Amino acid sequence: GLEVSRLILLALIAAALEAQPVQLRVYSEFQRVDPFGKVLAQDRAARPREILSPAVPRNTHTAFHVAVSAPANESYFLVVQANPDNVLQWKIYEERFIQQCDSWIPDGLEEAREPYFGVMPDPSAKIPGQTTRVYLVDVWVPREARVGLVRLEVLAKVAFWRIWPMEIRIRPGTVPDLKNAAAPGSLPAPADPA
After folding, report:
1. How many angstroms separate the most distant Cα atoms in the chain?
2. The model's pTM
3. What's the chain's average pLDDT?
4. Which of 4, 59, 82, 143 has the fewest CB neighbours in a 10 Å radius?
5. Above 70 in pLDDT, residue 12?
6. Distance (Å, rounded) from C-alpha 21 to C-alpha 9?
C-alpha cells in the first residue's frame, strides 16, 4: 500500500538525481584532469583517492583540481565556501590546456571570479568534444588560523546544487616565512607526471 508507494517514489527520485547530467569531482593537486574528465595517464594512481579531510599546516597553501563535467550547451555556477567563513582564503583559477600528440594537458591558469559561471564546452578553448572544465582551487591557511577543523565546500549549480564537502584539518605546525628562499628549479615538462 502506502509504504510501497513511498519506497517506489523515493527510488525514482534517487534515480533521477543520479542521472543528472552535471558531475563535480575534486582531485589532489598531483592528479591533473583532461578536458574529457579523465585523470592524465601519467598522474593516475593504482587506486583513486577521495579528497575529504586534508591536513594542512598554518602559513601555507594547499590546492585541489576541481572538474565539472556536463553535456554540451549546459551552463552552471561554481562557488567555494567555508564554515567558519573567516579562516581560509582561496582563489579559483581555470586551467588552460595544450595539446601534445593525442593528449590535452593542463598547462596554464586564468584567475576566475566567484561565483563563476561556465558553459560546456568552453567557447574560448575550442577543444573538440570537450565534456569537462577544470579549475585549480588554491587555499591559503593563514599563520594566525586556529588549530582545528574548517568545512570547505566546492559547489556546482545547474537545476540543483552538487556539493563536494571537505574538512580542512588545520595542524599545529606553522611553515616559516621563506624570505631568503632559493629560486625554484625548472618545472617538469607538461607531459611528465605531476
Report:
1. 74
2. 0.84
3. 88
4. 4
5. no
6. 21
